[in-house]
Amino acid sequence: MKKSQAKLGITKLFVFIFFLLLLFVFLPGIYSIRNFSITVKPCYKVSEPLEIHIQGPPKTFFTIKTYSPDKKTVYPFGKFQTSSQGTHSFYYPSGYSSTGVYNIFLETNQQKINKSFEIQGQCVSQEPPQNQEATK
Length: 136
Fold this sequence. Notes:
This protein is of the alpha+beta class.
């Protein structure tokens, strides 16, 4: 009788550990797969900076870098973390050197996003909607 009670106790312990692992290891990873989105707010004056809004899972790290239209200049912005609400905003300084389509690359462990936006006269004129792609 004592052997079966010991086996039952060990089984309960393993089930408890499994649920703890599920709660603290597997579920947060599944939750963080939610897609990110990038929004570029248009500026109306040459002196205004470009406002970039990121929406994604709360408290998730991501890396941002951009390329110039000629793909020769990289503008690294570094590693950021979304807030507890899942948002992050930052600004590009005014005074872009060239007109054209710029690309923002956002990368996390689970996905990569490329968002294009067009600069005309140092302000955003439009966001080409067909160029936003998310890969997992």
